[in-house]
């Protein structure tokens, strides 16, 4: 059965037709998220309609930024990156437009579902998937199933408090939190304090042999480890899957494991640290099998 899949992010909407874990006709369209939720939905409908001219699909799977109620297929909450997206009834909009079943899931959760079925989580029953990028996203699998929580918002691991001395929730709900220190954004900001010309991760790792640069990266990795120690001691997973483009740098996963293992209790050290395998296709592959367990 063919499934039309979309992965809606703040920068781009990735799209494809999926069947049996294989993606065909992969495209990428700028989201223009600043134009708001209505624009994003209109663009998503245009993309799907363009596929419908050439493909016969039986359902639609959508991975999207924002907190998602998968039972209703709607956005519970989305930040300012997509204005007016909170409350958007994605399932209702798309089912009315295309008359096929529509399934919706948060993007990090969808990526974790993809990894669980097709990637690094294939043989794992209890694992945590984290992505490090603009922020830090998380998803928790327990007994082979995604854990949604009581209000479908479980896995906000970027909101772990790691620096309470900087906590000012009345000003910024993420103040003092994990993603402020462990995200790729945080790493690049640190690097730019040292050298303003280092404006992205690629430029940074081109200079990883420099002592000062390596120190910046190692301090950032320590921030990643601070959060992982709490996550591991709380959930006791068999595996931690690390995603995000920055994890393609071999130095990082190796150093994370080196710093992490001495920092956790011996009884927790049986876990494995894996790099996500599916890259930027993880969300689409996860979206392709949404609803299979219904």
Automatic annotation (TrEMBL):
<dbReference type="Pfam" id="PF00480">
    <property type="entry name" value="ROK"/>
</dbReference>
<dbReference type="InterPro" id="IPR000600">
    <property type="entry name" value="ROK"/>
</dbReference>
<protein>
    <submittedName>
        <fullName>ROK family protein</fullName>
    </submittedName>
</protein>
<dbReference type="InterPro" id="IPR043129">
    <property type="entry name" value="ATPase_NBD"/>
</dbReference>
<comment type="similarity">
    <text>Belongs to the ROK (NagC/XylR) family.</text>
</comment>
């Amino acid at each position: 059965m063919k499934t039309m899949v979309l992965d809606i992010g703040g920068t781009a909407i990735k799209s494809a037709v999926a069947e049996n874990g294989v993606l065909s006709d992969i495209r990428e369209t700028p989201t223009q998220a600043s134009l708001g939720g209505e624009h994003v939905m209109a663009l998503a409908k245009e993309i799907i309609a363009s596929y419908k001219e050439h493909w016969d699909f039986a359902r639609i799977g959508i991975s999207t930024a924002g907190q998602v109620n998968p039972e209703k297929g709607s956005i519970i909450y989305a930040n300012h990156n997509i204005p007016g997206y909170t409350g958007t009834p994605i399932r209702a909009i798309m089912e009315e437009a295309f008359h096929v079943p529509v399934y919706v899931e948060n993007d990090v959760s969808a990526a974790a579902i993809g990894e669980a079925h097709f990637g690094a989580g294939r043989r794992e029953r209890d694992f945590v998937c984290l992505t490090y990028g603009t922020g830090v996203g998380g998803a928790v699998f327990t007994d082979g199933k995604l854990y949604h929580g009581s209000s479908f918002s479980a896995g906000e691991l970027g909101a772990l408090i790691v620096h309470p001395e900087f906590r000012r929730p009345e000003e910024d709900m993420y103040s003092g939190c994990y993603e402020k220190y462990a995200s790729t954004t945080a790493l690049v900001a640190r690097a730019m304090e040292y050298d303003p010309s280092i404006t992205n991760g690629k430029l940074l790792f081109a200079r990883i042999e420099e002592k000062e640069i390596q120190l910046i990266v190692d301090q950032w990795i320590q921030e990643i480890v601070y959060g992982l120690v709490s996550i591991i001691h709380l959930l006791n997973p068999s595996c931690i899957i690390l995603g995000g483009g920055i994890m393609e740098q071999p130095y990082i996963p190796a150093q994370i494991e080196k710093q992490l293992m001495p920092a956790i209790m011996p009884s927790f050290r049986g876990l494995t640290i894996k790099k996500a395998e599916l890259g930027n296709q993880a969300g689409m592959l996860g979206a392709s099998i949404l609803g299979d367990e219904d």
